[in-house]
Design brief:
- This protein is of the alpha/beta class.
- The protein folds into two domains: 272 residues, 3-Layer(aba) Sandwich (QueA-like), CATH 3.40.1780.10; 100 residues, no CATH class.
- It is 26% helix and 25% strand.
- The protein has twelve helices and 17 strands.
- It has a nine-stranded mixed beta sheet with strand order 2-1-17-16-14-3-12-13-15.
- Helix 7 packs antiparallel against helix 10.
Length: 405
Amino acid sequence: MIPEIRIEDFNYPLPDSRIAKYPLPQRDASKLLFMHGGKIEDHVFSEIPTLLDKDSLMVFNETRVVPARLHFQRETGAHIEIFCLEPVEPSEYNLSFAASATCRWKCVIGNSKRWKSDILHLYNPLGAADVERMNLRAALVKREGETGIVDFSWDDGAPFSRVLEVCGTIPIPPYLNRESEAIDSERYQTLYARIRGSVAAPTAGLHFTDKELNAIIDRGILIEKVCLHVGAGTFLPVKSEFVSDHPMHREPFTVSLGLLKEILHGGRKVTAVGTTSVRTLESLYYAGVKCIENGAPSDIEQWEPYARKYSQPVEESLGALVKYLEDNSLDELTLGTRIIILPGFKWRLTDRLVTNFHQPESTLLLLVSSFTGGQWRPIYDHALANGYRFLSYGDSSLLERKDIC
């Protein structure tokens, strides 16, 4: 049954002065709130290796943010902002990034009412030679509400990934109320980011340096990677009175056969770095159930976890995924998820969570509430009272799961 939850019950006062507009000079100098056994402790993020269980498993999201925000200008002088969301043709990220002349993307279009059917040229007020050489153009194929399908073409012969690097800017969150700056190219990216495709960073990972990662390994903790490409839906507030009316957007994810086997047979407690890693891990159970019932896994829809009771043990579900991959000679599982995690969600794979402090009335705050057994408010009250910085460039927390069902 879909939970009836009013989003106003997940509001809290967040002064603009508490939103971190820029990262700290050192990634691991952030504060770290540690909640375990019902207690809250204050730490510095550099201490996190000592707070983790020895011989546990830590899962990171290795997606890489692409400079997906492009500014164009019409012949009339009107400025049109195009924010690339996901590839349409070619539909695979790697193939689209490798395209050398044209590609088609689903985009958010700013000032779209001013764009009719003309071809747009990239806005290049400084006359940068490499931008001029690429001569990036955009043609509107179809409008879809707030989004649209856009054809891109260019002359340089460079791959589209290079075109974005030269012509685009990093799409920092709108609540920072500033334009992207040079510092964002480095700091709005995790150190281990590898696979291009996100339009927002998995921000829990922004705090890690090589020092912490090496100390975690030295502690006997196994590090594994997943990839979930974060979509622009992560910026969308819940505008409806009830959460049941809020749509979640599909995000593609990839998990290796090795990780599935490790979770299935390793017996280690799992710490997820970020809500994107959580959503990937918890989606695996439902993918496995589909495999058992339908012979193959498929995308996880938004309300699937609440549609009925599931009797399959986690071991049986993950075992079905492992068998499916092995039977089909596959090294990894690639699917999409729209899963929404709310109070009442039955947790199956994640024991601890590293995450930042999220916006009021957001789906991410609902996830934190679910994970902590409804104890989000004491956590946030403590953070507000003790000088923690909030949102993407803000401070961090390490939370222990508390089941109430």
